[in-house]
């Protein structure tokens, strides 16, 4: 068994509206008249997430597919590497033992 840190890119099945924290100040110079815009929201089409996994090397994809249930993994934008032994906590269990917060995106820029 090995431990891996994966950066997973998930394309959501349906776009979702996500609250965006307000920035202290925002200068808006031009807005398209056809754009519906609420500064406190974003229409997300996917997200990136760090996920730590304990699995056999040939089972990493299977563990990720079993864990992600809200969209499709974009394998071209997903990758993982073996973790250094000193980075692994004692409580790490087989399968997904850590999942970071989602970092949503609204386009493919």
Task: Describe what this molecule looks like in 3D.
- The chain has 109 residues and is mostly beta strands.
- It has one domain (2-19, 40-105).
- It contains 1 helix and 6 strands.
- Strands 1, 2, 3, 4, 5 and 6 form a 6-stranded antiparallel β-sheet that branches.
- The longest helix has 8 residues, at 60-67.
- The protein starts with a strand and ends with a strand.
- The model has no long low-confidence stretch (mean pLDDT 86).
Summarize the structure.
With about 110 residues, the chain is mainly β. It has 1 helix and 6 strands.
| Unreliable runs | none
Instruction: Categorize the overall geometry.
Output: elongated
- Please indicate the count of domains: 1
**Beta-strand content:** 35-45%
Q: What are the secondary-structure elements, in order, as H or E?
A: EEHEEEE
Compute the number of helices. 1
Number of strands: 6
Structural class: mainly beta
| Cα distance spanning the termini | 36 Å
Radius of gyration, in angstroms, nearest whole number: 18 Å
How is the main sheet built?
Answer: 6 strands, antiparallel
Helix content: under 10%
Defining key terms:
44% strand, single chain, 109 residues, 1 helix, 7% helix, 6-stranded antiparallel beta sheet, mainly beta
Topology:
Blueprint lengths: L1 E18 L21 E15 L4 H8 L3 E3 L5 E4 L12 E5 L3 E3 L4
Antiparallel strand pairs: 1-2, 1-3, 1-4, 2-5, 2-6
């Amino acid at each position: 068994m090995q431990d891996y840190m994966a950066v997973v890119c998930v394309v959501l099945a349906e776009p979702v509206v996500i609250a965006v924290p307000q920035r202290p100040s925002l200068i808006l110079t031009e807005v398209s008249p056809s754009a519906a815009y609420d500064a406190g929201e974003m229409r997300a089409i996917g997200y990136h997430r760090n996920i730590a996994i304990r699995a056999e090397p040939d089972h990493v994809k299977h563990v990720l597919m079993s864990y992600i249930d809200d969209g499709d993994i974009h394998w071209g934008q997903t990758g993982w590497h073996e973790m250094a032994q000193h980075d692994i906590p004692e409580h790490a269990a087989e399968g997904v033992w850590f999942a970071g917060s989602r970092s949503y995106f609204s386009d493919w820029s």
